[in-house]
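Example for tutorial group B:
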């Protein structure tokens, strides 16, 4: 094959290849969402979150995550964090509230939301962020894997970074209902059926070990549940006497079959609507 033919083939391949992804204007927003097909970072003009002081019953996790995030925003070493535990107890709310607190302290930190199904593209995202002057908090909500799910291998690019290492200006926070990111019955099934039981699950179970911080969230008691609602009422100016609040809130959680921060917010939303109060969340 002559050189002219090779040049034509190379030119055709170059035209077919996608153009390098241009970095967005990171000064346009504090939050971005990563999308694929095509790859792009879309700015979020207004991040949906609640104030840090309204998150009740998670004091230790709040303080630990805030300290870690402040360290990172200041250019100091910081750990990736896994927030795991009960549903509706404020895991994702805490990540977003901590980000807001860091900004309030005058530190520049961008939060980038990454969907679990887009994990295979994470190496391209890291290449886009690597070497930038800004610092980025990558956030993946509700992270978990099934027994035949290969996405967890892509996550290692964030946690370990391969031979290049994780970019110094990137830290990764994830929330999950599972401590080991996969169901316990699947762990046991693979242990019982594999030729080498320990090796069959070690790779997936050890994935959670790659997070430097494990922060557990547990179901709340009745007092904490009522305290959450009372805090929302005070913050948004909704007036209600204690006896009525207690009776309505207990009935509300009874119909849901559980108590959590999410259930508390749902009751408060209903209460604010009945009282004619607009919630500027």
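The residue assignment follows.
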């Amino acid at each position: 094959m002559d050189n002219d033919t090779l040049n034509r083939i190379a030119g055709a391949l170059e035209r077919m290849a996608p153009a390098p992804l241009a970095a967005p204007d990171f000064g346009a927003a504090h939050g971005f969402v990563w999308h694929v097909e095509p790859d792009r970072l879309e700015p979020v003009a207004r991040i949906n979150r609640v104030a840090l002081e309204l998150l009740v019953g998670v004091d230790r996790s709040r303080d630990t995550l805030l300290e870690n995030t402040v360290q990172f925003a200041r250019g100091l070493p910081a750990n990736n964090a896994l927030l795991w535990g009960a549903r509706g107890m404020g895991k994702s709310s805490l990540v977003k509230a901590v980000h807001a607190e860091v900004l309030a302290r005058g530190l520049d930190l961008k939060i980038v939301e990454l969907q679990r199904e887009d994990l295979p593209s994470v190496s391209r995202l890291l290449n886009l962020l690597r070497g930038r002057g800004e610092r980025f908090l990558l956030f993946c909500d509700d992270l978990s894997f099934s027994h035949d799910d290969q996405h967890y291998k892509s996550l290692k690019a964030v946690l370990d970074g391969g031979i290049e290492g994780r970019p110094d200006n990137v830290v990764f926070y994830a929330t999950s209902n599972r401590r080991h990111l996969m169901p316990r019955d699947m762990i046991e099934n693979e242990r019982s059926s594999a030729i080498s039981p320990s090796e069959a699950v070690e790779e997936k179970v050890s994935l959670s070990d790659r997070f430097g911080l494990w922060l557990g969230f547990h179901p709340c008691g009745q007092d904490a549940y009522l305290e959450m609602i009372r805090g929302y009422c005070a913050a948004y100016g909704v007036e209600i006497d204690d006896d009525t609040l207690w009776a309505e809130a207990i009935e509300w959680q009874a119909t849901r079959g559980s108590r959590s921060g999410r259930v508390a917010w749902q009751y408060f939303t209903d209460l604010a609507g009945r009282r004619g109060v607009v919630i500027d969340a």
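The two ends are 65 Å apart (CA to CA). Compare this with the pattern of hydrophobic and polar residues in the output above.
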